[in-house]
Amino acid sequence: EVQLVQSGAEVKKPGESLKISCKGSGYNFSNYWIAWVRQMPGKGLEWMGIIYPGDSDATYSPSFQGQVTISADKSISTAYLQWSSLKASDTAMYYCARRHDYGDSINWFDPWGQGTLVTVSS
Amino acid sequence: AIQMTQSPSSLSASVGDRVTITCRASQGIRNDLGWYQQKPGKAPKLLIYGASSLQSGVPSRFSGSGSGTDFTLTISSLQPEDFATYYCLQDYNYPYSFGQGTKLEIK
Predict the structure, then answer these.
(1) Do B38 and A63 touch (CB under 8 A)?
(2) How do residues B75-88 score in pLDDT, each as one tens digit?
(3) I want to staple A60 with a disulfide (CB 3.0 to 4.6 A). Which of A49, A91, A105, A107 is the partner?
């Protein structure tokens, strides 16, 4: 079974650093792009960025460029999302999702991780 | 960046109703659009990819159509388990972008 399992909920203080993870199983992790998506409390989905674990090529949404770092370690089939200095406004649920590519241009995101809730509060 | 405008933002309907949700892209995106369903406290779930292809295991009452800038998700006969929030996502170019979501509620 193809699945993505994310790390557990985190409670942090403003200014602290954090790295959350997304571990893939049931497929060749290196060969599929992994995206990160934010969902602030009671709000919609926001696409943050994407990484190809095979060579760690990453692209960010301008809204998140410089605010977070997306990385991957293909040797342990894990992608990461990290912050160097958290803000209260980073409080949200974060999802990872695998991009499936079919042919030249058809893509979709499936499966999704279960989500990691990050709470930043003093 | 491509903006996705989804409507309506909320919709009340009854079991058995036919409902349609639309997404409009700020520029042409061919058929590079997916539809996702999200239930409270759960991760999004893929319904439709490539604008009109039904994901394996998704009931056939769900269908998608459109190309270019205008897209629709149709549920032909609402079932109780369909009450959820629906999002479109353009995967034509980076940065990918979601619509604002449509919350489908029971009338």
Answers:
(1) no
(2) 999 999 999 999 99
(3) A49
